[in-house]
Design brief:
3-stranded parallel beta sheet, single chain, 19% strand
Length: 73
Amino acid sequence: MRLSMPTSVLDARFSYDRIWDMMAEVGFDAIDLTLTNIMSESHPLAGNNHVKKAEKLRESAQSRGLVFNQAHA
């Protein structure tokens, strides 16, 4: 069984790298990626090169032992 939480609780205050660190530190092993604000220009996946940006997010999460188990747009 995977233990996950939505990122919406933290993404207004912290970078995804910091969120991944906090989630891994307390025992989560999966990420419920909330993308409700993805249309904002300040969102890490907004704009050009979004595929490369998403790949970097995945690599960052995987380096901490986390996987994405779902997402909400």
